[in-house]
Automatic annotation (TrEMBL):
Annotated segments matching region Disordered: 63-83
Residue spans crossing the bilayer: none
Signal peptide, first to last residue: 1-40
Keyword terms of this UniProt record: Calcium, Disulfide bond, Lectin, Metal-binding, Signal
The protein's name in its UniProt record: Uncharacterized protein
Assembly: Homotrimer.
């Protein structure tokens, strides 16, 4: 049902579309909004396109499994960890071709404070799903990070267009606590999945009084740096036009967290 919107995006025209559809036997609603913010907006600021996007790693550390998603959950004290092997990698799917400017990496102290956390690694950007051996990627930068718990801002040697960003040659003592991919593209995403008669209690980052589409717009535009607010979800109440912006990890969101709320709606980013 979002096909029309996606088609419009490829024309590059500045058009918005609001499509709602009821799925049979289900209270789920798809709100397809903001399919193109076009080139009308300035692209001087960057934003982190990696947060809450699907993340993958070459293997789990059997002794101490820590999910790939822990490296891009917005929490710099939860860290991923790959298993042993010199060809270890972690990558994120940005779910769209983006102009990648730089990568921020926060490492951890997982070698008992004895040494560097990330060895000589390479950062590559791919337009297609990357193969295990990194072929077909464009090098953002190769880097040696020694400092424990440090956050480094690695500017790509040039701006690279791509969808997947991979860090490779992770050592078995390395662990990434937060991985941000700063892009210059206008904030963009395709659709929300929603529930009628349901709202999420919060925490609410910002409350507004708007139409539903404006609410979705506000949620998106708040994402751009330097504003630290990263909205992924919102409540909307038609009667009062109440719009409550929230941050939820759409990868692990459970609808059981919703409370019944007559005439209220809850929408969250749809990563499918
Ligand atoms: C960890 O990864 C597995 C498989 O990729 C996934 O099913 C699970 O939900 C993830 N756990 C968290 C907390 O993200
Ligand atoms: C961040 O991760 C740490 C370690 O897993 C956890 O203890 C803490 O509760 C998390 N913080 C938030 C805000 O989820
Ligand atoms: C990694 O490999 C080394 C040597 O092969 C082994 O001693 C060590 O236990 C392995 N570590 C993990 C976490 O599997
Ligand atoms: C990001 O910008 C590039 C270059 O202008 C464009 O090719 C790409 O489609 C844009 N991606 C999104 C998701 O808008
Ligand atoms: C890194 O973080 C760990 C865990 O929070 C802490 O024990 C350690 O002292 C930190 N190391 C440095 C150099 O700050
Ligand atoms: C990491 O791997 C190297 C080479 O396989 C091995 O010598 C070393 O013991 C491993 N370290 C840990 C902490 O597993
Ligand atoms: C939402 O609540 C209204 C009022 O009680 C009710 O008429 C409607 O059927 C409910 N819709 C759903 C999808 O539960
Ligand atoms: C939102 O604005 C409308 C008028 O545009 C008003 O009727 C309504 O009471 C307002 N709701 C809230 C929560 O302020």
């Amino acid at each position: 049902m979002c096909t029309e919107c996606l088609a419009r995006r490829s024309t590059g025209s500045l058009r918005m579309a609001l499509t709602q559809a009821w799925l049979m036997l289900s209270p789920i609603i798809i709100l397809c909004s903001l399919c193109d913010r076009g080139s009308a907006e300035p692209s001087s600021t960057t934003w982190n396109a990696a947060l809450f996007r699907p993340a993958y790693q070459s293997s789990e550390d059997a002794a101490d499994p820590r999910n790939a998603s822990l490296a891009n959950d917005g929490n710099a004290t939860s860290c991923q960890r790959t298993g042993n092997g010199s060809e270890s990698w972690w990558h994120v799917d940005l779910l769209g071709q983006m102009m990648v400017e730089s990568v921020w990496i926060t490492g951890s102290d997982c070698n008992n404070g004895k040494g560097y956390t990330l060895g000589y690694f390479s950062l590559n950007v791919f337009t297609e799903q990357p193969p295990p051996d990194d072929s077909g990627g464009q090098v953002c930068h190769n880097y040696m990070l020694y400092a424990e718990n440090a956050t480094v801002n690695i500017k790509c040697d040039k701006t690279i267009s791509g969808r997947y960003v991979r860090i490779s040659h992770l050592s078995n003592t390395s662990s990434i606590c937060e991985f941000k991919v700063m892009v210059t593209n206008n904030t963009q995403f395709n659709k929300y999945v929603g529930w009628k008669n349901s709202t999420l209690e919060g925490p609410v980052i910002r409350s507004l009084n708007t139409s539903r589409l404006e609410c979705a717009n506000h949620c998106l535009s708040a994402r751009r740096a330097p504003d630290p607010m990263y909205c992924t979800a919102f409540n909307w109440v038609p009667g009062t036009r109440l719009c409550q912006l929230m941050q939820e990890d759409p990868r692990i969101f459970k609808s059981s967290k919703l409370k019944q709320s007559i005439h209220g709606y809850f929408y969250i980013e749809d990563l499918r």
